[in-house]
Protein: 2,3-bisphosphoglycerate-dependent phosphoglycerate mutase
Organism: Hippea maritima
Amino acid sequence: MAVLVLLRHGKSMWNKLNLFTGWVDVPLAEEGIDEALKAGERLKNCCFDEVYTSVLIRSIQTAMISLSKNKCGKIPIIQHNEGKMKDWANMPENIPVLPVYEIEELNERYYGNLQGLNKQEMAEKFGAEMVHRWRRSYDINPPGGESLKDNYERTIPFFKSTIIPKLQEGKNILISAHGNSLRAIVKFIENISDNDIPKFEIPTGKPLIYDYKNGGFIKKSDDEND
């Protein structure tokens, strides 16, 4: 059996301002740092073998801050595969390392022309229902941006080709990513329909924990997560 943990990043500075963020590389707010620490406390006894983040700083910060609480004795180190960082980030083999991989396929939905705009102001301009459909529907694109379906088609091939084989090997995996890339993964592993996925929300900084056994995922209850 293996364990998969999905962790949405803590609140960012733009989350606090109620702005569409998407691929804009905004860091965590102080509240988001606190959320990452609380997530780490809940996960402190989970011994991960590999960690995957998006390439966006709020996702990376959340992973690394949460792992500062981990009690399993491994040091999380970002893996670099090109340039001098690949050649010069060498170390003795006996150091217990938890590899952290930055993966663009795990990035948030690209919100196109909405990025940097206030969600409430857009609701007043275009109507709350239209903005809700842009944000939560499966196959409706915001102006110039990705739908959740687009995000799914970007994220799930990576999940199938990389994450599932690792779980099949018995490795415990942490994915620190975003509301929509994680909604895509949950849609896939829980077989949520296109019609039902708009109702599914992932809160910031709260881990979703799954056991992987016999080729299937079993979601742990909140009580089991604590």
Summary: The chain has a mean pLDDT of 96.
